[in-house]
Amino acid sequence: MSIDAGYETRPEGVNSEHQSKRRKENSARKKLAYRDYAVGWVAALSEEHAAARAMLDELHQELPQKEGDSNIYTLGRIGDHNIVIAGLPSDGYGTVNAATVGKDMHRTFPSLRDYLMVGVAGGAGKAGKFDVRLGDIVVGDKLVQYDLKKDLSPHYFETTAVPLRPSQRLRIAVAKLKSVHEAEESEVPTYIREIANNNPKMKRYSIRPSLQDLLFEDTYEHTEPNEICDTCDRSKLVERQRREHDGPEIHYGVIASGNSLIKSPEKRNQLVEQFKALCFEMEGAGIIESLQCLVIRSICDYADSHKNKLWQPYAAAAAAAYAKELILAIPTSENQESKLVRDELLFGEIKALQDSLSFGSILFREHSIQSPHGDTCKWIFRHSTYLTWLDPKERPRHNGFLWIRGKPGAGKSTLMKLIYTSLKSKFNAISFFFNARGDLLEKSSQGMYRSLLLQILQQLPTSQQEQLFRHHPLLRSIKPGCIKWDNGTLQELLSKAISQFVQGELMCLVDALDECGEDEVYDIVEYFEKLGKLASEAKVSLFICLSSRHYPSISVRDGITLMLEDQSGHRKDLGEYVNDKLHVDSVNAEIIRNTLIRKAAGVFMWVVLVVTILNKEYQSGRIFAVKKRLNVIPDELNELFKDMLKRDNNNMDEFLLSIQWILYAREPLKPQEYYYALQAGLDYEQGDLGEWDRQEVTIQNMEQYVLTSSKGLAEVTKGWHPIVQFIHESVRDFLLKDGGINEIWPSLECDFQSYSHNVLKRCCYAYIGARVSDTSVPTQDQIISSSFLRRFPFTTIAIRDVAYHSRAASVKLSQQDFLESFDFTTWTALCNPCSDQLTAYEVCESLFSLLTSQIPDDCSIRGTAQKSTHYHKLPPVLDCPFYHGWTPLGLASRENHGDLIRVLLDRGVDVNGRDIHDRTPLFYATLYGRQWEAIRRVLLRTLDRTNAEDDTKILELLLSRGANVNIADKSGETPLHAAVTCGHTSHVQLFLDHGAQVDAPARNSMTPLHLAAMKRHDEIIELLLNKGAHVNTPNKLDGRTPLHIAIDGGKPLPKKPSPNYGTRVNQFGYNDRIPFHIAVNGKESAASRLLFEHGGWMNAPDGDNIMTPPQQLATINKVVKILLGRGAQINTPNHTGKTALHIAAIFGYKKLTEMLVSYGAKTGISDNDSKTPLQLAVENGHSKIVELLQPLTRADKKT
Fold first, then answer.
1. Helix (H, G, I), strand (E, B) or coil at 114
2. Cα 897–899–903 angle (5° rounding)?
3. Separation CA 606–CA 375 (nearest Å)
4. What phi and psi values does residue 379 have, to the nearest 5 degrees?
5. Residue 908 — left, alpha, or beta (φ > 0 → left; ψ -120 to 50 → alpha)?
6. pLDDT tens digits, residue range 9-66?
7. For the segment 1142-1190, what is each residue's pLDDT rounded down to a tens digit?
8. 959/346 Cα distance (integer angstroms)
């Protein structure tokens, strides 16, 4: 077994990282309940399953396997339909296996209404009157099991099968799609192409095999051992007429199903003649009778001896593509549509709350604990206390509460990780491992509650999460990105989540509870006691296991306690470790081992350190001194640390700097960062801080340097993100809590923390200074190259943290001289190569600290615009572009860092300074509001911006200092364009009041009025028109006026109608389809806001576009009416010749069409394709528009 917290490691190998990535991806997906799925999809082959999965618009989280169901499911969504995909066992083809899969699927997902059997089949070829070719699709309107027979004579059988049909609902959907294909091309080729676009590894699914489609004569047998027919006689091919296209044809008819594979043209032709079968497969009959499924097949061979697998991937993709097109044609009710959209919005809100619970290092401590040594720790699974804890019959006695206590370094964390690993493989489990070396959330009760709540939410179905949050004030009153969690709210939500947990037993493990303060420990234990009782009352099987050091003053009323060092199994673990690691072969070896275990008193950390000391004595030849050395080694861990350090007084300056970096670094350092951090602080020659020569100094050298410089008290963790840390938390306690610093360095200043930060600041600055030479300062080419940071690995830490340590040191030590001489030129130059490692906000904070750290505490300038008398001279470089090409003021405005904005303005920076995009700080201050609002619209129900006043104050501040409101960027956009786009009415008014040009044209002559029409901001449209905006200006791209754009949302018009008449939330451009509706920012329903921000669209059915939210239709009508009332020319065509009436007819906006007609829209105008609004309404299936326009069009023609 390893020690409690020492010898930590992250998971090793690519496999662990891949599994972690998959778990993370799965947890980020939506999780529904079993009852939420409506379509079952069975795929027999692995290629068929892969093709089916590729057709999903969205993947969902996996659900727990139900008892008795061995199917493996893939869950997701196509359009509005939630899909369950099930595969057959790899060796289990045929009707019987298919029937078993279908039965289990129906039992697990009882709400399934539609079932599809989708995959490949052998084709009829040119038998009879059919011409079915490889890659063609066969939709089974009938299915017959051809191998059901009765005996008529010794040599003659008659098939007794009765043709089976899919459900009436599916037959209607097939008929509907078939009628669409009479007039329009199928979407199947598009869906097939997209497989490769979305999944590069699946290119063979999207490309027809290079081998030709070969159909040989019935009498010609395949004789070569090779499956491929490249040596077969081409003169035996059946002559077939060449098709005009390469895409698959869709056939409708009989599919023959049986339990044997047909590889005989005679048998194939017999079945074609008897049943008129188009293809032959092996599973459909197994589920169609009980589940009335629809069988969809694509041809991969001709059911003859020339059968091979080359066409299987493409055929699987073709069948899956048709299945997707069919699913999109299956209608859903309006109520269901509204619920789906509402659920989408609520899911987005819940996802935002989940994201706010998480923090970057939430799993670090758990992953960093090494696995036990050998077979140690496994005694716990046989221990009577542990078994009593898990025994349901004993639960009333202990309320599912187990507390493992032990001395520091005893090995509690290693034991807890083993228990957790075991439990989570069998039960639902959540855990938190406190990390005293981590950031605040890693070592606080709030971090624990956040982590536990997040984990349990990820295990709850979406429906239960919605029930938990639906009416919670968090969804209404908290700003995105700034959710302020408190322990009370977290405890409330965690209690509610656990009380409604019905997914089986729930294990909750919390390690190293003592890393909190003692008051926090009291509160945590009290809460968990209440939680255990609450769970019992709610009939929830909750098991809680805590671990900590001994707390004699804290106990639990109902619970079990296990003292680790008192357990015989633990003592045996110590003995096993000593026997394995102690290399002493003297006659006193047994005495030494027994003495070592006795003195350890159950502390594994002590054993690990002492074994190392004794091995060194023995290996140096001092065999006689081993026993004596053991006898004088202190029994207590703290005294052992002190003894180790007193015996080695070499390089104490290096040791001091080592512990300062480990104690006070902003975050743990990597080995290479640690190496150069110490080099920078030990007064070596500047050349030692140059480029890292990996030939001269290897990672192994650096890891050894960690051990020697820290005198064995620090280590490098193993795994994929190695860092430097103390070997155990007790080292930190010894140095800080138990006075170790003062004992070793009694002459140091009393405020060791400020003193240390000042030292670390100098290390960072020394490393920055070493970059001043011509060969080290990065050029623009070097900035682009990621190799710069590999060559100078401490750069990012030095650039980011020099300000952090300066501000931390300023609590007790003046920074005036340091900051007045600070080299901002080099610092800003080095921000660029670090731009991928530093966030914009971190750069702002660093710059703010560098400009203000010398200001006394009683003159804090946060939130003020004064105290300028305390500023040192502003370097000219801070008025030029640097990080990502932004100026400091532009960056501060983009990040809404008001404090830095005030400091820079007070120092006289150019308020109109442009960055590399020609954008000014005013533009970014406006754009920030747009980004904030975009998040708000997706995540929150409320539309009021709680931070709008702050944004406006920033804009007013910039304007009061001379910001020019009409400066355009390289695309011609001004701050007014940005304000209009994000829908900030108050900002638009502010800019207009400050002289913004109301008709300023951006790229393609898009004026602010075009943008307002696109977003359908009626209030902003009124503001712009009142300021004299021209209502009939066409843009240069396609000639659309604000009137056109108000109707079509500024997006390209669809080329043809879609068979999907349901609401679909996807990104723009999905499946080459163009969004039909652009939601109305600021006035629409919450559902349409979500659809807009996610780039979604709605494909409307016949009539007055009932799938468009009523609020959106009303707003479109309102905006159009405003424009018409202000002089918009109603019959002006765009570049394609379409008027406003053409566009309304395409979308099926009935009331809008009536309004346009009433305002004088001409119905007889033809577009560039010679189509009138009436013809477009017909093509798009809007019968009510047709009824309205038909008589008017006749009248126009007569006129």
1. strand
2. 120
3. 20
4. -60, -25
5. left
6. 333 333 444 444 444 455 567 888 888 899 999 998 899 999 999 999 999 999 888 8
7. 999 998 899 999 999 999 999 999 999 999 999 999 888 888 899 899 8
8. 39
* Calpha distance 948→299 (Å, rounded): 60
Q: Where are the alpha helices (DSSP H) in 159-281?
A: 168-183, 188-198, 203-206, 265-275
**Residue 951, both tokens:** 């944004």
C-alpha torsion 492→495→499→504, nearest 10: 140
Cα gap 416→547, rounded to integer Å? 8
Q: DSSP letter string over 1150-1173? A: HHHHHHHHHTT--TT---TTS--H
H or E segment to which residue 1179 belongs? helix 1173-1179
Instruction: Give helix then strand counts, H and E, for the chain.
Output: 51, 20
Is pTM beyond 0.70 here?
A: no
Distance, CA of 585 to CA of 623 (rounded, Å): 9
- What's the burial of 436, exposed, middle or buried (CB within 10 Å: 0-12/13-18/19+)? middle
One DSSP character per residue, 900-947 reads HHHHHHHTT--TT---TT---HHHHHHHHHHHHHHHHHHH-S--S-TT
**Token code pair at residue 146:** 């051809």
Amino acid in position 988: V
Residue with tokens 């106990």: 555
Phi and psi of 75, rounded to 5°? -115, 145
The total of other beta-carbon atoms located within 10 Å of residue 527's CB is: 17
Looking at residue 919, its amino acid is R
Residues 6+ apart with CB under 8 A from 535: 400, 498, 499, 506, 541, 542
* Residue 437 tokens, joined: 């070396």
Q: Report the alpha-carbon distance of residue 1193 to residue 763 in Å, rounded.
A: 82
Tell me the one-letter amino acid at 341: V
Q: Which residues lie across from 548 on neighbouring strands? A: 405
Per-residue DSSP letter, 750: S
In whole angstroms, how large is the CA radius of gyration of the chain? Answer: 36
Instruction: Provide the terminal-to-terminal Cα distance of the chain, rounded to the nearest Å.
Output: 96
Closest alpha carbon to 1066 in 1100, 1092, 1101, 1105: 1092
- Residue 887 · residue 913 · CB < 8 Å: yes
* DSSP assignment letter at 718: B
